[in-house]
């Protein structure tokens, strides 16, 4: 007789399974499709487990990936927060991850038999939003991490979800990187313009100079530099970004000074730039490739030229873990490290790093504003990209907002100078030459 069907076996309820996997106090109240519950009804948030499939994702991969799979497939829903800005749940999620426990062997066997009795103990299909990006790419033969071909696929997978979708939450600035708020109550567009002003000033650019922006997105930095009389070239691996940016350049009458190309930065042939900006690119490079990246940028500058690197970091100098929610669903092949590692990498190839600073709370505010914009345009977002993708963006942006507030991640800018053969700065000032102009 099949043991799973034995009359002596009493399947566990979903609530009992949750209780076996999460130590008390459980930070959520759980309600399940079989009518059972777990945790306290007094918990701030209620989690609904809507299907055996959703339960299976949680049991077989406890943590952020399993919860995300259940979330995007509607196997799990949370009461009490808007899907576009579920910021409040992340305090409870932090507590939940600390409370996960591995059941003993006999309990785990009973859990699996109980899943079997529900028809859930099988290989669950990978959610469509994941299968089309991560799994397919992983199975593609011959593409090592950070080859030109694979980098192009990864960037396209994230950024080519549709310009119309990004316009819903990025605002008029159409800028997908940390803003710099001149005042706490400044608008998102004001803060993005102030960020471009800060980068431009740190690069010490003047009318007639030349500028390269690698990983330029929709060309906001390029157009800002051109409006100041600087000849600016931007490159991006997203075709949709490049087409949008070039059309905007023509619309604003900046074609004589500004250009955005659909191009890998490694294929830029021009050299002798006065300034180079990399705003939100290093996260895609890979720590093992920093030496080659910064060498390339160093070679593209003339003596006395300045590079500004603006990127997300960890608060210390360890590498990112793989297989997490962000790596699997949002930025495949992304990798972070600490600001010390980045400073060392720039110094090791010859940059004099004259300034570093954290903009952590500015990114917290930026993400807050993006989430609120997405919330205000939620129905249109779901119409454009579908509910699973819209939910993912809301979850990852709200989670990132929480992460910046709590120093799980940080955002740094680094200013490096290419010195001449005698160690001189070719006329650059000895001390800081830019104005912060921030509260």
Automatic annotation (TrEMBL):
Pfam families: CMAS. One of its GO terms (biological process) is methylation. Keywords: Lipid metabolism, Methyltransferase, S-adenosyl-L-methionine, Transferase. GO terms for molecular function: cyclopropane-fatty-acyl-phospholipid synthase activity. It is an enzyme of class 2 (transferase). Gene3D superfamilies: Vaccinia Virus protein VP39. Its EC number is 2.1.1.79. Belongs to the CFA/CMAS family. This is Cyclopropane-fatty-acyl-phospholipid synthase. It comes from Corynebacterium ammoniagenes DSM 20306.
